[in-house]
Design brief:
The complex is a heterodimer.
Chain A lengths: L3 E4 L2 E5 L4 E7 L6 E7 L6 E7 L4 E4 L2 E6 L4 E6 L8 E8 L5 E3 L3 E6 L1
Parallel strand pairs in A: 2-11
Antiparallel strand pairs in A: 1-3, 3-8, 4-5, 4-9, 6-7, 7-8, 9-10, 9-11
Chain B lengths: L3 E4 L2 E4 L5 E7 L5 E7 L5 E8 L5 E2 L10 E5 L2 E6 L8 E7 L5 E2 L3 E5 L1
Parallel strand pairs in B: 2-11
Antiparallel strand pairs in B: 1-3, 3-8, 4-5, 4-9, 5-6, 7-8, 9-10, 9-11
The chains are: A mainly beta, B mainly beta.
Amino acid sequence: GENVEQHPSTLSVQEGDSAVIKCTYSDSASNYFPWYKQELGKRPQLIIDIRSNVGEKKDQRIAVTLNKTAKHFSLHITETQPEDSAVYFCAAENTGNQFYFGTGTSLTVIP
Amino acid sequence: SAVISQKPSRDICQRGTSLTIQCQVDSQVTMMFWYRQQPGQSLTLIATANQGSEATYESGFVIDKFPISRPNLTFSTLTVSNMSPEDSSIYLCSAGANEQFFGPGTRLTVL
């Protein structure tokens, strides 16, 4: 099965700085990599995703990069704001359409 | 995006009893999934609910403990059987055509 590792587990940044979260996966056949943001007591919300035929995708202050050869992908948040504080999860979808999640990163943006 | 509802939103149950959680999607989807998320932890896939066939369970989860129904393309149930305090967790369903969206979760406490 797929094994997804995520680092760091906690991350604190000053407001306005950038935050980077990294994930690796084990199954080279995985082809879809979403990122979810989960605020306390809420459901995970899809914030950005990338498919294996693309190396980078950007949506305003959020970007995701994918290196299929190395089997790792990263989330980049620029100009961080206090409302970006949450737990972020990466995931990898296998060929059976099942998602396997990383262990999560608790991001704190300090005003 | 799919709109997913779950009920109950929370419940407190006695040891040895069973609870059935319902998940409703506002559109027809091929696959629905059930996850468990313990406090401060990541999401662990329990099973894939397939319409017209038996659910597919992940390692560590068995049908006798977590029976699943999928009577049509918009609905699924997960039963947590013969509960113990270790089953206390948040249970989430997810579904979607390309991206996966989550229900709000069911917070289960077993006394």
